[in-house]
Every structure is written in C-alpha cells, then in structure tokens.
Amino acid sequence: QGAMAAIYYSNRIIQFPLALIALSISRVAIVDLSRLDKEGNKEDFKKLFIFSFQNIIFFIVPISVFLIFIHRDILRLIFLRGEFDEYSLALTSSALFFYSFGLLFFCGIKLLVNVFYSLKDTLAPAKIATFSLAINAALNALFIFHLGMGIGGVALASTIAAAINFFLLYRALRRRIGTLLWPGFGQEILKLVIIGGILGFVVKAILNCDINLILKIIYVFSSGSAIFLGLGALFGLRQIKALAVYIWIGLKKK
User: Fold this and answer.
1) Distance between CA atoms of 143 and 38, rounded to whole angstroms?
2) Rounded CA separation 30/90 (Å)
C-alpha cells in the first residue's frame, strides 16, 4: 500500500536537481554541439561535451552523496504532515535512497542523448533505451518477487538500468568521437565525493538539532552553500575558480 505514491514523491526529489542542472546544461549545449557537428569541428565538439559533463559532475556528485546521507531527513522536512505519516516516510525514503545512487547516471543520460541528437542520430539512443528498459523490467521482477526488496527494489532496478544505459551510450559516443575523459578525472570525482560526505554530515547534524523548523531550513541552505563553496575552493576545483573570476570581473565592471 502506498507504493505508487512513494515512487512519485521520491522521484520528485530526484527530478529537481536533474531538471535544474542536467536538463538546463544539456539544452544549452545541444545548440552549439549541432553547429559544431555541422561545421565538422570534432575537436571543439569534444571539448564542449567534456565541459558540459564536468559541470554536471561538479553539481550532481555532491548532491547525490548529500541525498544518500540525509534522504530520510529531507523527506521528513518536506513531506511529513497530514496523510504523509511515518509509514509513508519509511516507504518513500527506501525508494529515494536507491534513486540517489543513480542520480549521476540519470543526468548523464540526458546529456548523452542530446549529444546523439546533435549528431542527427536518434536510433542509437532508442536501441540502448529499449535494452535498458528490458533490463529494468527483469531486475524489478528479481528484486521485488525473489529478493523481497519491495519498493526499494523498484528504485534500485531503475538505478542499475540507468547505469547500463549511461555506459552503453558513453561507449557508443566514444567510438564515434574518441576518448572523452580528461586528466585528473578520478581525483575530481574523489574530491566531490568527500565534499558531499562532509556536507551531508554537517546538514544531518543541523537537522538533528532541537530548533524551529524554519531556522533549520535557513541553517541547512546557508551552511550547505558555504561548505560547498569553501571546500570546493580548498580542493582547487576549477568551477569554483571560474566562479570567483566571474564575480571579480562583475565587481570590477561595477
């Protein structure tokens, strides 16, 4: 009981960063990617894809780790009232926990599909999506009926299917335009995971404090933003450096 609602509510949380970050970046990138492909400029095409992917990773990896740490607290803060009781919370948090592991793959798929569209190729993403859908259905049957994972099994099946979809799209694109990784890729991912872990730990401590709900929300957003930017600067992430440059140029113009 309540399984469909749990999937819906947990999916709303996942869709927020996906729409805010991945969709916006992908829709902006596809315009220039289409132009570069038409011009036959493969080098700049690859650079733009890598730049877009780097920015998605920069935001999504910490958010994913953040959600893994405090998925239950976020749901409690936003939804726990009225008909959404402790049972609903337990059910929805199970789904959100497993969805959180797939957030990067969901976002990566949005970018990769748009890259294929810019190459005038709609067949490859359709074939891979169909295969991933079959995998998803098979995993749903396995996790729900054979392993008894319940609603968490639905989310885990979607996450694994999304990972397979992402890596198949990535491999197909690499065959077309060459290597897509950049120097320091592994180190950057590790730094972002550490930032997300620290962010989740601090926010969880704030949410456990016995203070007014509105104050909790203010503290969570203010401290979370400060920690994210501060640790990003400390670890020398290029996006933080670029942001600092843009702010400095804006202040000089004023």
Assistant:
1) 45
2) 39
The whole model's pTM is what? 0.84
Instruction: Return per-residue pLDDT of the chain as tens, 254 residues.
Output: 778 888 999 999 999 999 999 999 999 899 999 999 888 888 888 888 888 888 898 888 888 888 888 888 888 888 888 888 888 899 999 999 999 999 999 999 999 999 999 999 999 999 999 999 999 999 998 888 776 678 888 999 999 999 999 999 999 998 888 777 777 777 888 888 888 888 888 888 887 888 776 777 788 778 888 888 888 888 887 777 777 666 666 666 66
Are 110 and 26 a contacting pair, CB within 8 Å?
yes
User: In this structure, what token pair is assigned to residue 193?
Assistant: 């995971």
DSSP structure string for the chain: --HHHHHHHHHHHHHHHIIIIIIHHHHHHHHHHHHHHHHT-HHHHHHHHHHHHHHHHHHHHHHHHHHHHHHHHHHHHHH-BTTB-HHHHHHHHHHHHHHHHHHHHHHHHHHHHHHHHHTT--HHHHHHHHHHHHHHHHHHHIIIIIS--THHHHHHHHHHHHHHHHHHHHHHHHHHH-----TTHHHHHHHHHHHHHHHHHHHHHHHTS-S-HHHHHHHHHHHHHHHHHHHHHHTT-HHHHHHHHHHHHHHHH-
Sign of the dihedral defined by the CA atoms of residues 22, 76, 204, 161, in that order: negative
